[in-house]
Design brief:
- The structure holds 2 protein chains of 2 kinds.
- Chain A is built from 11 helices and no strands.
- By secondary structure, chain A is an all-alpha fold.
- In chain A, helix 3 (50-72) packs across helix 4.
- Chain B is built from 9 helices and no strands.
- Chain B has helices spanning 9-15, 18-28, 32-47, 60-73, 90-112, 124-130, 134-164, 168-193, 198-223.
- Chain B is elongated, with a radius of gyration of 30 Å.
- Classes of the chains: A mainly alpha, B mainly alpha.
- Chains A and B meet through helix 3, helix 4, helix 5, helix 7 and helix 8 of A and helix 1, helix 3, helix 4 and helix 8 of B.
Chain lengths: 215, 224
């Protein structure tokens, strides 16, 4: 799938899969055929080519902003996190040797940057986006559970919140989430189940099930 | 089909086993509570994609680009002790160096205890020199304390500027200083375990040097 399709839309099948595995990168290095767009992107980033970073931003920026926004709770912090992540990627890309898929690594840097910002204490993860900045309504924004879910999400522990966001909101697979969060795939599944169970409990207590039935 | 109890609900949702889910469907037809819980579980996944945030940020890429260009043109590329993904790249190197010193010292001791023969490694004595004496250690620690105090004074001067300015460059400096402080703390912890390790002392000195230069750069930046 072309990299430029990354921001194509909400539906999971439209999201760019982070499909280039370490093995594939390794294979690509020995392949005599012309490099793919993604291989060129990786190589461009490794050599510090700013244009390659612009392509990376075009392909993954929207998704990065969304993840950062949901983790940090407001648009300004999300944009700071994306910018900081790009700087870190720029500094470290030279040493990237394909231990994991490049794009997985990019998201890993982003998530760690968000965690760093949360640890620095300036960020308020419990703050919901709608309180902080006027955003255009997301597709499917009329879902009766959206607001309640967003509020409950802010009360989850960061790791559970991350897995829920990456899987259910952003459409990453458990294998990819495992690489991003540096946990085994099985742990990702367990964290997702726990996150959903906690959300279910909070929503149930808050009467969301009744409202859902009524709608 | 197996009998389904209300207590099986969580297991059915966790395992997603088709047989269990079929049993849940049958059970839910006559159990409103399980039906609602299951519906809520499904609704969470259905609603989740609506949490994806999309908004226009026409100034974000220009800012990032500017920061990258500044980074590129910086005479001294910012270096990190930790990889961007959170690892600590200097730790294996420091550990390997420490292991090497210990192994060499062990070899020397072994040689000395086995009849005073010539060391197997001609340069083994050099490692004795590399390990500091008590006197040298006192001297190093005293100078290190003086040096650290001077850097701390510089830090205090820069601190208000770090707090006030919110430009990407200052944020970058702030991040670098945080990394340096983290690395300094970790090396100091290592040194506490092995005070005579000259390699770790050099690493520490290099980090203090870097911190000093960064603070000076930041001062210059603030004055310009």
């Amino acid at each position: 799938m072309a990299i430029g399709n990354a921001a194509a839309g909400l539906r999971r099948e439209n999201l760019l899969p982070i499909s280039l595995t370490a093995k594939e990168i390794s294979l690509a290095e020995t392949d005599t055929g012309p490099p793919t767009a993604e291989e060129e992107l990786v190589e461009g980033c490794r050599t510090g080519n700013i244009e390659a970073f612009e392509r990376l931003y075009e392909a993954h920026g929207p998704r990065m902003k969304s993840i950062a926004m949901n983790l940090l709770g407001n648009a300004a912090d999300a944009e700071d996190a994306v910018q900081e992540a790009f700087l870190k990627i720029y500094r470290a890309a030279r040493g990237f040797r394909g231990q994991s898929a490049f794009t997985t690594w990019v998201y890993r840097v982003l998530v760690n940057t968000c965690y760093d910002l949360m640890r620095r204490g300036r960020r308020r993860p419990e703050m919901v986006a709608s309180d902080a900045v006027e955003l255009p309504p997301a597709r499917g924004a009329d879902h009766p559970l959206r607001l309640s879910l967003e509020q409950c999400l802010g009360r989850l522990r960061p790791r559970h919140r991350s897995v829920f966001l990456l899987f259910e909101v952003e459409g990453f697979s458990h294998r990819e989430i495992g690489e991003i969060l540096d946990v085994p795939e099985g742990t990702s599944k367990t964290l997702l189940f726990t996150a959903k169970r906690e959300l279910q409990g909070m929503l149930w207590t808050g009467g969301a099930a009744a409202r859902l039935s009524a709608s | 089909m197996r009998t389904f109890e209300c207590s099986d609900l969580q297991e059915a949702l966790r395992s997603r086993e088709p047989e269990l889910l079929d049993a849940l469907d049958v059970h839910a037809a006559s159990c409103p509570r399980c039906r609602e819980q299951h519906a809520l579980w499904t609704a969470i996944s259905d609603a989740a994609p609506s949490l994806r945030k999309e908004w226009e940020t026409p100034r974000l890429w220009p800012h990032i680009r500017q920061a990258l260009v500044r980074e590129e043109s910086s005479p001294r590329r910012l270096w990190s002790f930790r990889s961007a993904s959170g690892g600590r790249s200097w730790v294996p190197a420091a550990a390997a160096a420490a292991l090497f010193v210990v192994a060499a010292a062990g070899l020397w001791v072994f040689q000395a205890g086995s009849g005073g023969r010539e060391p197997l490694v001609a340069g083994a004595w050099r490692y004795q020199d590399a390990l500091m004496t008590e006197q040298a250690l006192d001297d190093v620690q005293r100078r290190e304390t003086d040096y650290l105090q001077s850097i701390e004074r510089l830090s205090r001067l820069v601190e208000p500027r770090l707090r006030q300015a919110e430009t990407p460059l200052v944020a970058s400096y702030r991040e670098k200083l945080l990394l340096l402080d983290g690395a300094i703390t970790e090396i100091r912890t290592e040194i506490e375990r092995n005070q005579y390790n000259t390699h770790l002392r050099r690493e520490l000195l290099a980090m203090y040097d870097e911190k000093q230069r960064t603070l000076q750069d930041l001062m210059k930046e603030a004055q310009s």
